[in-house]
Amino acid sequence: MAQTDRRDAPGLPDFSLLKRLARDQLIYLLEQLPGKKDLFIDADLMSPLDRIANVTTLKQHEVDKLYKVELKPVVSVSDQLCFLIRPRIQTVKWIADVVKSDKAVGRFRRYKIIFTPQKFYACETVLEEQGVYGDVTSDEWEFYLLPLDDDIISLELPEFFRDNFLEGDQRWVTTAGSALRLLHFLFGPFSKVYGIGRCAKMVYESWREQVEDGEKKAQNPDIGNVFLIDRDVDFVTPLCSQVVYEGLVDDIFRIKCGSVEFGPDVTSTDKSLKVMLNSQDKVHVGETQRKKEIWWEKQRKKKRCGMDIKQMKAFVAEELKGLKQEHRLLSLHIGACESIMKKKTKQDFQELLKTEHSLLEGFEIRECITYIEEHINRQLDYPFYNSSFYMLLYTFSTLGLLPKDYRSLKAQYLQSYGIEHLLSFANLRQIGLLVEQQPGETLTVMESKVGKLVNDKTAGKLTDAFSSLAKKSNFRALSKRLMLIPKTGEEYDLRVPRDMAYIFSGAYIPLSCKLIEQVLERDGWTGFEEVTRMLNGHEFAVTGPDGTETRNKTDPQRIILVMFLGGCTFSEISALRFLGRERGCKFIVLTTAITNSSRLLESLLDNQG
Amino acid sequence: MKESKRAVSSILVDDDDDDDDDDDDDVEKVSWSGEPVGTFSEASTRVYAPELRKPKSECKDYFSDWSPEETVKRMRKGKVYSLERFRSLQDKLLLLDEAVSAHDGNVITAVLIYLKKSLSKEIFFQELMVREIALRHYVHYLKEMEEQKTLVELMKLPFSQDDAIHVQDHYTLLERQIIIEATDKKGEAEIFKKFPRKASILNMPIITTLYYSCFYHYGESEGTFSSPANIRSTFRISEKQYILTALGARAKLKSWFDVDSLFNTKNWLGYTKKRSPIGFHRVVDILQKNNAPVQVLKDYVSLIDDAELKLSLAQKYKCHDIVIEMYRDLKDRQQLIVYQGKVERGSHEDRKIDQLLGNMQIRWKN
């Protein structure tokens, strides 16, 4: 939720245009199949679709019944079936089965597949192999961007993270490039593009190519600068427990497409209620927001939290007497807070944060191992006690787990949670989240060993493979160099936050946001070579394709689009909003999906035995 | 000759212009005058320019015109393309390498699908082995297509010696679970009637199985598969893991005596003393979560080493005696007076505090 702005802050462009464009295109596609039809929607698309075109709108365009895609036989009796799906092989196989079973009983229907945001060749191949290619028509719904708030846009592609960073599949690179192209066309041209990360570079190149091939844009920019960053440049931030309000709500209740569903325990009625959690929700400005944010600081200081609730209730009763709507919303949020408090018992959460902060600072590491062990042994559940988090944070604090610790923790983890996590560990190592120290085995030694096994010309290619496998975390060094851990000497007053660390109760400045801040300040990466080396390179800073580079502080120059490839957290969004307020500029966060620690790790766990 | 060749090329379209409606037609035909096919101008060319009727192989046909680079470009834009012309291994590999350098997973996978169809497995795998990015895309594709068999052939999974042990454990565990499940399902013993099982034990992790065993089969001899002792030794469970699990189970059943025995050890003189591989504050935490009464809690609170922690937990769980004793040891009269306000008037604790406050021999610090 955006807070009260400085008076001189630049205004944000209106992104509702994106929704209208998407809506119009979808309607057009639906009309390509005239007449009544049943619509099957991918589970992942239901929430986004709801924000674009609700049931009424769909029914106005001859959609009869709506079904969720479930991999089982269809019960629809309609003569025309329309499928709105993400381009997944599994889904396409199911559709092929639907068509084939109809054929087998001699039933004739029309089938239309709408792939969004685009179709993949592999999907077409499946249709062809299953012998139904000629029986279906297919289209692409170029729905790339969903605005979640005035300053947040999501591609709603949570699979981006796993596909790209774990599986090494570059299928979404062009998609990300196309999303950028659309924004560039509507709100650009961009004058400067900065970035860091292998994927960021590829997305930039894809975007650049698409822009050069396309129509030339008039010089009327709303957005001046762009910053592209890979999720794996900073794994630590998404793993930290969130203490900003939206982060907490996301962790506990799961925010979907900018709204959250509060159950009866929160609404104090017997019904659930869906609430939009964005700037339209006028309650979240100023005082009230701050009060929630300093909550956890009080927790940490062992003061009684009851006071804050009482203060808030008093505030509600007094100040908002006349505003019924706001009152209701605020009561809901307070209910949510109370629910959060129940789930996070004060002592446990305090201990959790303490351990996390120790890991970030590099203190008392062995105690942290003990803490992790006990949590594994007690089989404590997601999302607050997941021992994986700490193992991973631990990995980053030092240079990786000692082999004996790694083996021991892994054995205990498997004993507590099951053998199916064997593959999860392999995945975590693959992506570089879990690193085991290899004493005496440096990169060069491995290279030469491998080099002996293959021809010289191929050794170079394998080097890439090994360097990604042996990627050591330099978090310790980065943290020192960038001063990510504020000095604990003076009191950190969250009411008057002085830097981005406030989003983690003053303990830690998110690495990703710090990088963005520094690069924008320096207008590039010069003088930052030490840091980029520690981040494994792939940094860039280039002028936009239209060749304009303006250094003056015009409004568009003060609006910066930050694109997170692989997801970003509410904590990072809050930090960037803070940074914007400090610098008199505005950040627009473009992300492949909103993520948090649970979702990040869940996407890496392979529970298929 | 040159003249007519130029005329021919100018008839044949240069497809690098944007044209997205290609999907239905294989080729687009535009004459040099810009008019579509089938008009008078094309007919006249046929009649008046016989040199245009050349043998097919000499004409620059559309598909064969497209290099790997152009083909990949067309594929990225969703235009019509054809991979069939890439027949030699060299051409195929050029195509693959071109796709990889374009950083478009959709195209890379499409090319791989083609290569899979048109190359023997050995050669295809061989070439994949030295192309990491292509290999990863292919592996992902196989996973999605659920072609487990091919996947296994392709990949030697990165399982270490360690992992082999874990897998072995898993099978041993499963065997044991089957045996336990067979007997327990009948639910004849008293405990199953009092606390009916909510689920089968099959496929549960080791620790869960141990918990179950501590719950339903506590005290059985090490000889039986269902006993905690047997599970502990078979699966090399550490003391810490064992105690935490047993504690949870016995506390749930409110068997405070069993809980007590977990921490008893005999020291070298033969005296029993209490010892724990986990901090006693943890023990208290677990007991409290299982609604242990104060009389039980206080025994363990008193064993906590750290004074500050001990005091705060004693206060939290209303272990008055401990609080009183600690304030006495700290010689903190003020706190004792404050605490007196928290206990029930006339109670045993109240009297005890009175007694202490009246004790002239204690040199209070405040």
Automatic annotation (TrEMBL), chain A:
GO CC entries: late endosome membrane; lysosomal membrane
Pfam families the UniProt entry points to: Sec1 (PF00995)
Record keywords: Protein transport, Transport
A Gene Ontology biological process term: vesicle-mediated transport
InterPro entries per UniProt: Sec-1-like_dom1, Sec-1-like_dom3a, Sec1-like, Sec1-like_dom2, Sec1-like_sf, VPS33_dom3b
Localization, UniProt: Late endosome membrane; Lysosome membrane
Primary localization class, coarse: membrane
Membrane topology designation: Peripheral membrane protein
Keyword set includes Isomerase: no
Similarity remark: Belongs to the STXBP/unc-18/SEC1 family.
The protein's name: Vacuolar protein sorting-associated protein 33B
TrEMBL record, chain B:
Domain annotation Vps16 C-terminal: ranges: 89-164
InterPro entries assigned: Spe-39 (IPR040057), Vps16_C (IPR006925)
Any one Pfam family match given in the protein's UniProt record, by short name: Vps16_C
Chain positions covered by the region annotation Disordered: 1-37
Record's protein name: Spermatogenesis-defective protein 39 homolog
Subcellular location: Cytoplasmic vesicle; Early endosome; Late endosome
Record keywords, A-Z: Cytoplasmic vesicle, Endosome
Major localisation: cytoplasm
Residue spans of biased composition, Acidic residues class: 13-27
Gene Ontology CC annotation, any one: late endosome
GO biological process: intracellular protein transport; vacuolar transport
